[in-house]
Amino acid sequence: MSLANNIVKYRKKNHLSQEELSKSLNISRQSISKWETGENLPSINNLISLSGMLNISLDELITGEPYLHFPFDFGRPQNRKPVLVMLIILSIIGFISFESIHGSVLLEILNLMMIEFIFYLLIIYISPIDYKNYYNYWTIGRSGIKYPSINRIDKSVVKELIMPIEALLHLRRTKYLSYKQIKQMEIILDLYDMAPKSIISFDWYFAGYSQLMQEKFYLEVTTIDNEKIVLNLRQYYWKESKEHKMLPTIISFLQRKNFRFVDKQGITDIVKDKNSILINDLYDKRDSLRRKRTDVSSK
């Protein structure tokens, strides 16, 4: 979106007429009109004044994207209350189980451990809250990225189970990668063979749906040493999250770096379009391409 369009957009958003805005800036209404048609550009001083009058940052005024504050934690849960809830649930289950089992002390302990483990599995894998995010988040900075040391898109079951525990005990381990060490970065969304919306009729962007029903969405980073690093993007699925709001800005920031940014699926354009839904659009594009291929092969 051009600067001219942004001035129009944010002026109207603040319920200001061209006349009202021009009076606030001590310039003529014609100057505002020329800015909004793209005939002229505001001076640096006027841009600064505009951003103040329209209650947005200079970045957002010029590019249409919100300002990216560094460091930015992508996917990091906002609070630790869910962890406390999990511990309380496990404690209650453990107490009830211990009281209801009679027999040898060893048998009671083994049964208690088994019950606790089963409920822990259910909480970690079926709960709408992805407790692995307490370990799995990554941080984007001005000069590089800090990411979790357990770093694979297909993690082992054991590693996935211990991640929330390590995060809870403050044992999370990270590594640092500067942008100069990156050769390529690709944004990827792994679609299912069949579009979920064709077999389940509910909103895939509802903030509480199970983590088991999320397509894998990530940045695959290739270093100059050909090491593969995965940066999880699934927090974008939550509409109200800061990650959903900031992903277009983050992509723009990364595209300006001195490495190859690959987007074979056209994800960048979709996330920048506020009226589009990423998953639905990608399934529609893929299914449309499949139909075209089928029509060509049948002729």
Strand proportion, as a percent range, falls in 5-15%
Global outline: globular
Cα-based radius of gyration, to the nearest Å: 25 Å
- The secondary-structure class comes to alpha+beta
Mean pLDDT over the full residue set: 83
Largest sheet: 4 strands, antiparallel
User: How are the strands of the largest sheet arranged?
Assistant: 1-2-3-4
- The count of DSSP E runs of length 2 or more, i.e. the number of strands, is 8
Helix content: 40-55%
N- and C-termini, Cα separation = 42 Å
Order of helices and strands: HHHHHEHHHEEHEEEEHEHH
Question: How many individual helices?
Answer: 12
Low-confidence stretches: 198-210
Overview of this structure, please?
This protein has 299 residues and is α+β, with helices and mostly antiparallel strands. Among the domains are: 3-63, 434 Repressor (Amino-terminal Domain) (Orthogonal Bundle); 138-151 and 173-298, no CATH class. It has 12 helices and 8 strands. The protein has a 4-stranded antiparallel beta sheet with strand order 1-2-3-4, with no helix packed on it. Strand 2 and strand 3 (144-148) form a beta hairpin. It is globular, with a radius of gyration of 25 Å. Mean pLDDT is 83; it is low at 198-210.
Summarize the topology.
Layout: H1 3-13, H2 18-25, H3 29-37, H4 44-53, H5 58-63, E1 72-74, H6 81-100, H7 105-126, H8 133-136, E2 138-140, E3 144-148, H9 157-168, E4 174-178, E5 182-189, E6 217-223, E7 228-232, H10 242-255, E8 260-262, H11 267-272, H12 278-298
Parallel strand pairs: 5-8
Antiparallel strand pairs: 1-2, 2-3, 3-4, 5-6, 6-7
Helix pairs in contact: 2-3, 6-7
